[in-house]
Amino acid sequence: MGAVKNKRMPRAVREQQMLDAAVRTFGQRGYRAASMDEIADLAGVSKPLVYLYLNSKEDLFTACIRREAAALTTAVRAGVQPGLPADRQLWAGLRAFFTHTAENPDGWAVLHRQARTHGEPFAVEVAAMREELVAFVTQLIVVAAREAHRDPSLAEREVAGLAEALVGAAESLAAWANATAGVSAKQAAATLMNFAWAGLGDLMENRPWTPPQD
Amino acid sequence: MGAVKNKRMPRAVREQQMLDAAVRTFGQRGYRAASMDEIADLAGVSKPLVYLYLNSKEDLFTACIRREAAALTTAVRAGVQPGLPADRQLWAGLRAFFTHTAENPDGWAVLHRQARTHGEPFAVEVAAMREELVAFVTQLIVVAAREAHRDPSLAEREVAGLAEALVGAAESLAAWANATAGVSAKQAAATLMNFAWAGLGDLMENRPWTPPQD
Amino acid sequence: MGAVKNKRMPRAVREQQMLDAAVRTFGQRGYRAASMDEIADLAGVSKPLVYLYLNSKEDLFTACIRREAAALTTAVRAGVQPGLPADRQLWAGLRAFFTHTAENPDGWAVLHRQARTHGEPFAVEVAAMREELVAFVTQLIVVAAREAHRDPSLAEREVAGLAEALVGAAESLAAWANATAGVSAKQAAATLMNFAWAGLGDLMENRPWTPPQD
Amino acid sequence: MGAVKNKRMPRAVREQQMLDAAVRTFGQRGYRAASMDEIADLAGVSKPLVYLYLNSKEDLFTACIRREAAALTTAVRAGVQPGLPADRQLWAGLRAFFTHTAENPDGWAVLHRQARTHGEPFAVEVAAMREELVAFVTQLIVVAAREAHRDPSLAEREVAGLAEALVGAAESLAAWANATAGVSAKQAAATLMNFAWAGLGDLMENRPWTPPQD
DNA sequence: AATGAATGAGTGTTCATTCAT
DNA sequence: AATGAATGAACACTCATTCAT
Questions:
Q1: Which of residues 146-175 of C touch D (CB under 8 A)?
Q2: From the UniProt annotation, which stretches of this protein bind DNA (chains A, B, C, D) (predicted)?
């Protein structure tokens, strides 16, 4: 049995307990391998109650995705101060991102690994969140280009590709940082900032980007 | 029923047909959702024959991973000429990578999405291949740094992080290029080269990296 | 379909129904040839319920063995009055044994034929019961020898062999009595008592052992 | 693979190899658990050849039963000298029986355990052999009774029961002797002779039957 | 005399889901 | 607000058996 059985709780609380159990189970076992039995057990309730509140396995998984996606985007947004220069904003966003994914490995696994692996209905859900992150990065690139008085004809698709690459690198580094002992969220963010802002070419000339002190 | 039933084929041929069907099914449905019935049907053989030749679902999936991993690394290696400068090598490797993944979407899905999502035995298989790619990139970075007479004390972990970010960006761009109409392998490679070699900072100052004519 | 479907019964009752069906099916078909489908059908429930309550075919078979072994030893023990002379005790035990096996042919088949034929895990279960019967007989022989003031150096292995022979004869006669029309439990017991107590030699000299009137 | 593959052997030899493999496999695994694959492999031939020569699994098992039954009855008959007194004949027969079963444990397992456990068609086969042994014992009892000038009205069923008990005890002791370290065929036979000829009652009075010196 | 290639039919087991209370 | 009882449908895997050579 999972949690201690506290009987007669208000629905909202029970639902969160179920989602907690579901995120953990889905994150560790995967969508198909996770059984409703295990989730109900871990949540400390009977299976019919899970169905009463969350309708079906698909709906339950979708609810997990939405909750974890909202938590992640909220965390990133909360970490960023809109007024700052583009590089400071990106730095702050990356730190928030790596911190949140490190602290919520199961939620991150649900979003990054499971949701995108198990068919359209779920991939669509997670795509919305990813869009938001990509849009955030895209806007930063555009703003930075404008600030640098760069040719405004910078192709939209080119920017989209860059943003995609940056987000992809971030996702990959999140997994790497979590799996590699001794790599903190801050270090992961610094690595990516160096890569993204200065590029390997600059690095070769010994001018790494330096994170601000905080 | 999937393929036309060609009866009485030598074992080696049948095995490749089964692997073709399995890669397609695993890539599209995922490991758990793919049924041995569907794979056998798509391969145009009966289920017992699949078991006779490939032993079990796990072994079949592992065989898929190995075949696709070998195909990908072979393609990348074949695309690279060892003698060239680091940036030319990276460029060639990326082009080969994006070309191969675009031409083998199911194989790429098996490697990138399914194998890493469904537990240790499979993740280990794919990790070996990824190690190879990361090692290739790592070595390029080290060589480039030496060529640029850069401080040789470049921390190992720092390089590892950069290589990880680059490979992660490549993996992410592969999915993006395949999903976005009109983005060729060459364009995806160029986008990533710009990002990796010059960085966003350089881009802001209007000095994009230019692919060589070929 | 086997039994009439009585829906919604408490677990304990359903379990007994399942064991009834399983003993019958295992006893008649054998362990391997008995299918869980048939057992579930005969019990009037669906297969998943059998698995929910009894876990697996192995566990189900083991549960059958334990139940039937307990029933048999209980019956034999209940038939014997400890204070009586050895021959009276043996007589009572044999009557109980033949009566019980005649009334529970499937249970007896499970114990005597199937359990001992299908591998260690089951043979071990049944061996415990057989030990008990052999021990009962062994102790009677020892007591009888003491009562007869016989040389107490009667070798242990000799006694073990005699007990083994007696129990083996009983097992064999149980099958014979059940298969031969008109042979009652009492007659089977009398035959074995004559054989065991007086031996063929005595029989030749016309001194058969006579069962007490009851 | 089991045996070394000697190609192109005469049919009669191949058949014996197959039966050897089948007896071993059936004896150790049981009828259902033994697979034709394993038997063919152990015999060093391909499965179709087994079917070509022995037709089906049922026929193969039946052939095993017949061969082993014939071997056992032949061994017992060969051990007995018809002219001798009844007790000497019984003694010789038992020795032959225990010796043969100890030397052919798989064959004995096929006859005693497997054949009687797996349905009518096989039980019938083995019953024929058992009849023969029971008949041999029955005749000995009748002869002994006549020699002892006993009342010739000795009920047929009574004799049948005694013979059944004796054979059952022998079967049981064969298993016991094989499983108990240090119990030889001769000792097993002596134990049973004591039990059968003198009975427990005589034993109590210290007059055990003594085997002749040979 | 002998076999590599192939399958129809079935088995144990699991799971998402519902009913009755 | 909550659950014990129950199942339809599917799935991985095996096996006796045959065909074509």
A1: 148, 150-151, 157-158, 160-162, 164-173
A2: 35-54
Q: Is the CB of D4 under 7 A from strand E?
A: no
Domain A64-202 has CATH 1.10.357.10: yes
Q: Considering the domain D61-204, what is its CATH architecture?
A: Orthogonal Bundle (1.10)
User: Alpha carbon of B41 to those of B8, B18, B25, B104, D17: distances in Å?
Assistant: 16, 9, 11, 21, 39
Determine whether the distance from the CB of A5 to the nearest atom of strand F is below 7 Å: yes
Does the pLDDT at position B203 exceed 70?
A: no
Nearest residue to E9, CA vs C1'?
Answer: B48
Confidence of residue C2 (pLDDT cuts 50, 70, 90): very low
Nearest nt by C1' to C14 Cα:
F5
- For the cut 70, the answer to whether the pLDDT of residue C40 exceeds it is yes
**B162 CB neighbour count, 10 Å cutoff:** 23
All residues at 6 or more sequence positions from B10 whose CB lies less than 8 Å from its CB, including other chains:
none
Alpha carbon of A10: minimum distance to chain B alpha carbons (Å): 35
- D153 has a pLDDT exceeding 90: no
Report the 10 Å Cβ neighbour count for D5.
10
Q: What are the Cα distances from residue B92, in Å, to B191, C15, C135?
A: 13, 68, 83
Mean pLDDT, rounded, for D39-47: 96
Q: Could you say which of A30, A160, A197 has the minimum Cβ distance to residue B201?
A: A197
Joined tokens for residue C168 = 């083996």
Distance, CA of B74 to CA of B97 (rounded, Å):
10
Task: Confirm or reject CATH 3.30.450.180 for domain B61-199, answering yes or no.
Answer: no
Is residue A2 over pLDDT 50?
no
Residue D106 token pair: 């798989």
